Amino acid sequence: MNRSFIARNPSILVFLACLGLFTVTVTIASEGFGLGLISTSFVKTLGKTLCLCLVAVAMDLIWGYCGILSLGHFAFFGLGGYMIGMWLMYERTRLIVTESMAAQQIPPTPQEVIDSIGTQIFGVVGSSEFPLIWSFAHSLTLQLILVVAVPGLLALVFGWLAFRSRVTGVYLSILTQAMTLALALYLFQNDSGLRGNNGLSGLQNLPGVTASQDVVSIWFLWASALALGLGYLLAAFVVSGKFGSVIRGIRDNEARVRFLGYSVETYKLAMFTLTACIAGIAGALYYPQAGIINPAEIAPIASIYLAVWVAIGGRGRLYGAVIGAALVSLVSTYFTGGQAPDIPLGFYTISWVDWWTVLLGLTFVLVTLFAPKGIGGLFDLVTARLPSNRHGADYGPDAGAKREEEGQ
Any idea what the Cα angle at residue 203 is, between residues 200 and 206, rounded to 5°? Predict the structure, then answer.
């Protein structure tokens, strides 16, 4: 008898229950809807952490399950942020310009309004004209489509070129990192159309929304939790069936999977594009909570950090990616936010703001050497102690196969 997808993966229900309990608890304890025990700034930190967990799930899919160490997935994350940031900045500026022009005796023409919006947005880089890439910035619907379409299209083109050439291993990792670096360097230019090094700012102010940031932060927390839950469910579905078996086979022995007649390049391309789209959605939810996005966010080091999170949590297990991203994000906030006390040694004072990256790198090395399964591997120690519950299972793949109790 075939069991349902959820029945075959009970850990999904555990994860979704924990996520729901976490979201409800933070909401009740927040300043916007609850007791005021958690500050609005920390609610935003938690919301951003959920987005980082989502992109970590995408990284685990492509690296932990498919075996492709991509050092460019934070580029897709940043592109998703830029796409939604364009609409947020355009619409907020439009409302400000329209309100300021309403007091004029002669109503402005539509072109004058557009010119004023362009001057407000691009004056910082010495321009007033909208670049071509801002053609759909006036439409929230179209920009939401671009949140998925732009990262997905870039991944599709890049992946097709790389996989058809059968670039694998460290060479593919270097190529993805080169793609990220090239994109970041391009965005640093003022004529890129995205305000160069200034980036897009004021993204936390939702156009037309009069609610306070206390309330808006909870809205984004709910949206981030929903996206993580759906993303986790999608990822678990992908890796649980035949498709998941094939991509794990590609990870373990690509030549054998190709020999069996599977189109390895097609599977790789599908996974690369899917995970890029997931990363774009995570970025679109992250940067409105951060309030700003600039090309530095897409620097190659960010994608390396992403790989470190997954390795620490335990690659090849979705909950491990979530644990690693959440743990490193929150600990990083503690050490780099000035909350961790400095350690005076007399001849030198250890400032955690400066030494946090060293501590993170040391943790990565120790995990790689002594705990290659990451934090998620601790669950194996627990489950190994539990008694096996396979009595009555089929010996063979068919429902009518000889059963265990018959063979005893």
Answer: 145
